[in-house]
Amino acid sequence: MHQSRVWTYAFVFATFLFWSSPQAGAQNSNITHPGEVTALRAIKSSLVDPNKNLSNWNRGDPCTANWTGVFCYNTTLDDGYLHVQELRLLNMNLSGSLSPELGLLSYMKILDFMWNKISGSIPKEIGNITSLEFLLLNGNQLSGSLPEKLGYLPNLDRLQIDENQISGSLPTSFANLNKTRHFHMNNNSISGQIPPELSRLPILKHFLLDNNNLSGYLPRQFSELPSLSILQLDNNNFEGTTIPDSYSDMSKLLKLSLRNCNLQGPIPDLSRIPNLAYIDLSSNRLNGSLPQGTLSDNITTIILSNNTLTGTIPGNFSDLPNLQRLSIANNSLNGSIPATLWENRKLSETERLIMEMQNNNLTNITGSTVLPQNVTVWLRGNPVCLNGNLDNFCGTESDDESDSQISTNSTANCVNQGCPPPFEYIPVACFCAAPLIVDIRLKSPAFTDFRPYESTFEQHLTSGIKLDLDQLDITSFVWENGPRLGISLKLFPVYVDNANNSNTFNRTELKRIMNMFASWNIPSGGLFGPYDLLNFILLDPYKDVVASSSKSGLGKGALAGVILGTIAGAVTLSAIVSLLILRKHLKDRHAISRRRRTTKSSIKIEGVKDFTFREMATATNNFNSSAQVGQGGYGNVYKGILADGTVVAIKRAQEGSLQGEKEFLTEIELLSPLHHRNLVSLVGYCDEEGEQMLVYEFMSNGTLRDHLSGIYKRDFGYMPFNKLYN
Asked: 724 pLDDT exceeds 50?
């Protein structure tokens, strides 16, 4: 009898090897959850992919065949499958629509479709992905309203839907997003009032809804948000609304931008905000005098132009050490202009101060009319300019010089040498290297001029991604509408003397850096605010970094053969070892009575349940013949329904097939780790009242052998080890 059982197991392993072997002509074994494979195929079918970026989505397994943009967990989860952790389809010229099957990727943390041309609505099924941390849909053509279900994503950290055509109101369910720090919904058509319930969000940091159709009142409860650092609502229509006095109590606020919102009333006293750096309340209907309180030393920008403000210029605008721009033009201010605004300002070559006071009723300057280096004051349209000796104040304004600038590498004591493209010469380290080019955009910087902060930004960025300063080159930056700051970066590998290929990043380092940007793992930059990841530009040495994770120089076909051959060899070796172990135990067993002792040794196997005889009898209606679905040399097979509703197949050993208790438990230990698409999983066992039963997941399609032979039989003698997917 034991010889028969050995050959049963041999057939099982032979079947496994057949479906795993490259000689069988099959793809590598699928170990991604089948439901997620189906979902990914549905996602692709909803997209239009003119550049064929997703052409490998019909080859092999998503997690093991490196499908473009699909990133999986490194290990299988409790169900024995790999699962999709991230879907990154950034800037791939995709159009079409988002499939509802996205909601089936139930273990996903990052969903990234940024900077494509996808239209249609946001599927409400995305609200089913409770593990989701980043929902990144900005820069598309999405329309419709925001699904209420998105407000029930318990782990959502970042919601980016900016630069779409989203309409409708903000769901009040968003008040449930207790782990959300970033609401980036600017440049849409969102309407209605901002729900005051959002003031309950405990860690909300950035609230960017500029360029929408919001109306109603500004929620005074926003002052209760303990972590809010950026409130940016420019170009909405809060007609007749005043700025709540409570906004003076926003202790973490760095930037307040309410430009062109049809606001009225006075400006609240913002001097109580300890780290406030940027104020833009321009192009409203604000009235009254300028607040007299002394603002934070961090202030870089004060823009109050195009209102109906009256009174004099207060002394609190003087002695602000980091001030870059003061704009109070096009108001009804009167009186004198205090020269203390610019006196004693000593600015470096990279610093400057611009003061815009045009078109008021200012009559004279008290103090020196000599402007320090890099200080500009514009007074055209004021009575003071009737004095003919103030050309440096009353002349024609020039264009802003800081709109764009190209950065250059620092010099070094080495001779420049020509480098073959795409390599570039790095004078700091004196060698040729291929850079990784990264385009980003600062979405809400709290300054007007980047140049004084460029060095600080370089230190912040290189520290965040764990690179040396000389590995970063800011090649250019340009101010865009918003205002937002586009920055082009080049990152270079470290030069290692006498090392091969030190002029390129190795694959591991390149992926690490890209992941830091794409997963927003770079710590927040304070004044720099949040950033957009616009694009990675991969030069020739890095072209295949997304397509493959292999470090080998083999061709794809050869590499696949090596991998599949290795897998087949490893499985064969495992099968031989397992067969030898089974054979040894089967030889050593001795027959025992069917009614053996009811007590047994305890065994604890992770994922395998110890059922009682009563549970098995109840599941099969006391082993009724109507529940029998098969018969083999081992015994009968019954279809059973467990107490929780799970349908299972129960193999009940007949008296002649009983093993010794030790051998039976050893067999369970050997079978429990086996997980494969062609193997049915072991659910549990029963070993009491003289019975030996194995409980497997139930498959209704018959056996693999029957399907291969074209015959559908009811002999399930080996059924529990083989399953067939439709």
From this structure: no
